[in-house]
Amino acid sequence: MVEVREWSRSDTARLLRVPSTDDDKYSRGVVALRTGSAAYPGAAVLGVEAAWRAGAGFVRFVGDRRVSDAVLARRPETVTGSDVGHTRVDAWVIGSGTDAAHRTADEEEALRSLLAGSARVVVDAGALDLVDRPTAPVLLTPHAGEFATLRARLRLGAPEGDRAADAGEVARALGVTLLLKGARTLIAAPDGGVIAVEAGTGWLATAGTGDVLGGTLGALLAANPGALLAEAAAAGAWLHGYAARLASGSANGEPGHPIVASDVAQALPRAIADVLA
Q1: What is the pTM of this model?
Q2: Nearest to 185 by CA among 205, 199, 203
Q3: CB of 89 closer than 8 Å to CB of 107
Q4: pLDDT tens for each residue of 73-110
């Protein structure tokens, strides 16, 4: 039986801080996203919005013109382009809103270069198939279906019901940290440690909230370069879930109400203020 550590509000508070007068946009964390597609531009918009709302000091977006235009229409603070060159990036978010079946050779080469780099990388959806013992510190964020596909690719068989053990097995096989989404989110490190996060609400089961989670994780990973990847990921997952509870009106045990993904992103500053208070 795998020992699982329960993540709390106070644990999350340790990874948040109020910026001082000595901080600048770079010291607060630089997040870059290579997400979205012509078919799913909203994934990029939601991820960028969440990265800003979760406290990133600088957010960059790399993608095609149509998607960049959508990002800028929502968040004009974002720096966009076809490449970031040699500029600073503390954490990348890749794969959200993309489909591996439609990935070009150039795009695959660019994504593989990130996985071979030194910056932290959050890998979601259409980039999950590229990960195999990467050089970069990588956080995979599959949902249950994607997780089953990962296990099949690794020839580990179907999940056996012990989600913590199953997640740990994949994390070790790939040499990454793995965040398995669900009502009880599990974060498994390659060394065998597992953290559980239960801050969310059933109202989170709506399209686009995974894209918001990706941007939130990017901001927390970028802002905490000295923290363990699994702990920064757990803090991001906790904030995401708590923001959903605030947005849905279910934070105090009330039944709550339906929300959309952008409601979660917009509730992130309130969630952070609440934890800091």
Answers
A1: 0.97
A2: 199
A3: no
A4: 999 999 998 887 778 999 999 999 999 999 999 999 99
